Amino acid sequence: MCGIVGLFLKDKSLEPKLGAMLSEMLVSLSDRGPDSAGIAIYGAPSSNEAKITIQSAKPARDFGNLDTELAKAIGAPVTIAVKSTHAVVRTTPAKIDEAREAIQALRPDIRIMGAGDVVEIYKEVGLPEAVVDRFDVRKMTGTHGIGHTRMATESAVTTMGAHPFSTGADQCLVHNGSLSNHNNVRRELVREGMKFETENDTEVAAAYLSSQMAHGKNLGEALEGTLSDLDGFFTFVVGTKNGFGVVRDPIACKPAVMAETDQYVAFGSEYRALTKLPGIDNARVWEPEPATVYFWEH
Amino acid sequence: MPATSKATRESHARVFDLDVSSLRELNQALHNLAPGSNETAWEVLHPKGSHSVAVGVDQPVSIDVRGSVGYYCGGMNSGSAITVHGSAGPGVGENMMSGSITVKGDASQYAGATGKGGLLVIEGNASSRCGISMKGIDIVVHGNIGHMSAFMAQSGNLVVLGDAGDALGDSIYEARLFVRGKVDSLGADCIAKEMRPEHLELLQGLLDRAGITGVKPSEFKRYGSARTLYNFNIDNADAY
């Protein structure tokens, strides 16, 4: 089943409430998926630092002294903000790829959740309420975000099998459905040089979009490609550094509702997820059409 | 709302506020209704997309739901008259037996699925699979319907004042489909059929029951089964 949500703010005055609004939306869909939950938040951009979100099953051991060791390894200042099993590593944007490699060399058990100029990704096994509490998501500010609560079908219930999946800088994706040609598509993407962390079908969809955008397509064009190149059931909600997109497969079994006002564009697997948004009673509420790409950019 | 009208409403209608009461309490109270009960008017406040609002009601009461509902509103309805003053999620009126459901907004996928009787009116649009496997229900949609509507529809009538999406009436049996606008494509074994006087009369009756005026039966086209897939014939294997 799974539940997915997305929120793209147009009104800057709502940005301090992004984490609270998105958390509320995700928690309202808890009974669509009890296995794991995750959220990606796009925060304010900063010209002198980029971020890597990392995760460890043993945070005390892996995160301890990592900032000093990493700074030494890459020769640039590093800060680490630990939140439970996750931590956000900040360093200069030019050093971000080097930092990523150094983290994996220094601490082989650390998993990279995602990286980019603005995105932070938090995901764990458990109900949405527990996950948003654990990472204090309600206090987070930002311009847009996406979230997922999972009922697993295609791969194991683990932290790495939770959504969102991120396979490119500031790119991430949540998925309701299941893909049937993911092994083939994964093989093709591996040949292109894409790296995969899991056997999960959704990671393939995320990597497919990253690959398309790396080839120069914009978010809308990349989403259009999923309709011909991915086989299976899907409703995707996607975030990029400044954009937010939605696409459903042509059969459109997986539910989707959208709402738009002057203040925001919101997505929910069900209307329940949208009921507490400001001005929802007067919002334009609609069901996105099958095989139709919707996207917004700041 | 003027005080007098509120007082009138409260004296007649039993009000359930789902911000205060649970959905289980509402549905249990509806199921506890005995034949001939005086509690014939019900009002449901703040449904907020709840699932299964007023499912399985089997008494001829009226139920006004003030807001949008989630999955399966009015499922298995038997005799009650439900009005959703908002939009409905997937499966509104699924397996309805009799009575009526009116949705003032839009309906999501498989509205009226497998319905055996009664009248389902969608005043907005219905999305995909509207009337899938319908077995005698009458469905009237003021707007458009999505793809794969009336898939394997067995009996009953589907009336669409707007347009229909792809694969209308795929593998249809004996349901009658009346569409006023364009049809993107017809499904396997579904064909346009002649509108004979008895169909015009039937359609006028359906429009009347749905309270629709200013629309003439002659503006619609009728679609139904070509009946070539009823018995397996090897020449039709590709159509299954």
Kindly describe this structure.
- The complex is a heterodimer of chains A (298) and B (240).
- Helices cover 26% and strands 32% of the residues of chain A.
- With 298 residues, chain A is of the alpha+beta class.
- Chain A has a seven-stranded antiparallel β-sheet, covered by helices on one side. Chain A has a five-stranded antiparallel β-sheet with strand order 9-10-11-12-16. Chain A has a four-stranded antiparallel β-sheet with strand order 4-5-3-6, with helices on one face.
- In chain A, helix 3 (66-74) packs across helix 4 and helix 6 (182-192) crosses helix 7.
- Chain A starts with a strand and ends with a strand.
- The model of chain B is unreliable at 1-10 (pLDDT under 50).
- Chain B is elongated, with a radius of gyration of 19 Å.
- Chain B has one domain (14-29, 39-239): Pectate Lyase C-like (3 Solenoid), CATH 2.160.20.60.
- Chain B is of the alpha/beta class.
- Chain B has an eleven-stranded mixed β-sheet with strand order 1-2-3-4-5-6-7-8-9-11-10.
- The termini of chain B are far apart.
- Chain B is built from three helices and eleven strands.
- At the A-B interface, loops of A face loops of B.
At CATH level 2, the architecture of chain B is 3 Solenoid
In terms of per-residue confidence, which ranges of chain A show pLDDT below 50 for 5 or more consecutive residues? none
Distance between the termini of chain B: 56 Å
Quick one: CATH class of chain B?
Answer: Mainly Beta
Number of helices of chain A: 8
The structural class of chain B is alpha/beta
CATH A-level architecture of the largest domain in chain A: 4-Layer Sandwich
Q: What quaternary form is this?
A: heterodimer
- CATH fold group of the largest domain in chain A: Glutamine Phosphoribosylpyrophosphate, subunit 1, domain 1
What is the average of the pLDDT values of chain B? Answer: 94
What is the tally of beta strands of chain A?
A: 16
CATH superfamily of the largest domain in chain A: Aminohydrolase, N-terminal nucleophile (Ntn) domain
Q: Which stretches of chain B are poorly predicted, pLDDT < 50 over at least 5 residues?
A: 1-10
Which sheet architecture does the biggest sheet of chain A show? Answer: 7 strands, antiparallel
The strand line-up of the biggest sheet of chain A is 7-2-8-1-14-13-15
What's the β-strand tally of chain B?
A: 11
The CATH H-level homologous superfamily of chain B: Glutamate synthase, alpha subunit, C-terminal domain
Strand order of the largest sheet of chain B: 1-2-3-4-5-6-7-8-9-11-10
Shape of chain A: globular
